[in-house]
Amino acid sequence: MPRVPVIGITACTSMIELHATQTISEKYARAAAKAACGLPIVIPSLGELMDSADILDVVDGLIFTGSPSNIEPFHYNGAASAEGTLHDPLRDATTLPLMRAAIAAGVPVLGICRGFQEMNVALGGTLHQKVHETGVFMDHREGKDEPLDKQYGPRHTLHVKPGGMLDRMGLPAIFDVNSIHGQGIDVLAPGLRVEALAPDGLVEAISVENGKGFALAVQWHPEFQVMDNPHYLTIFQAFGKACRQRSVLRQRLLLSA
Ligand SMILES: N[C@@H](CCC(=O)NCCCC(=O)O)C(=O)O
């Protein structure tokens, strides 16, 4: 009997009162369970306390989540962040090596928003720290005072490149996506392919060229109300299929050992 694929979901660190806490937004777990048909488990950000290889031993896929925090710029030789920028060094110390290890091992990866930026930085790319101050791109940030449905509602069109993963999934050449980020890709990491662009030319989706497994990352949030959006659902279903294939392979390897 094929078992349900285990999908690791990366966590953010924060303080709740006096307690150091690991958090994921529930929508990622729900999308992993409902749209990708997997068993979501939280991957805490404990930095060097956990080895990436040990994590890869127990998961069939990984979702690198979004977060209000920004990757510390020293990871991409960027200038120091503006004062007051929210960072999460433990998350960086966990997700950047984990991203590299997962891609190298062919473990299915879906990066979302911060997770998209993590894929680029982990593989040697750089970020714009404030996309809206470049003078080139539109403001990709949400209206923080608006209701959640509005914040995560359609904001701009997405232009899918022919011949890539998104195209092969059967997604249309143009569709609407949400937008909840202040940072964005500046220099694309070697080995990544641009999958889609915003109308202003900002990179919105990337994949690993000649990757050993499913390795896709998107700057928008397909996990939000995923069951109500056929395009978002297509992405989670494709990721879920890749996780199931790895699960079957892992089960076979375990049985033959
Ligand atoms: N901080 C980065 C990444 C933005 C991001 O991931 N936003 C998600 C917010 C919370 C969520 O929905 O998970 C940036 O500003 O670019």
Automatic annotation (TrEMBL):
This is gamma-glutamyl-gamma-aminobutyrate hydrolase. Pathway: Amine and polyamine degradation; putrescine degradation; 4-aminobutanoate from putrescine: step 4/4. Involved in the breakdown of putrescine via hydrolysis of the gamma-glutamyl linkage of gamma-glutamyl-gamma-aminobutyrate. Pfam families: Peptidase_C26. It comes from Pseudomonas putida. Its EC number is 3.5.1.94. The keyword Hydrolase applies. Keywords: Hydrolase. GO terms for biological process: polyamine catabolic process. The lineage of its organism: Bacteria, Pseudomonadati, Pseudomonadota, Gammaproteobacteria, Pseudomonadales.
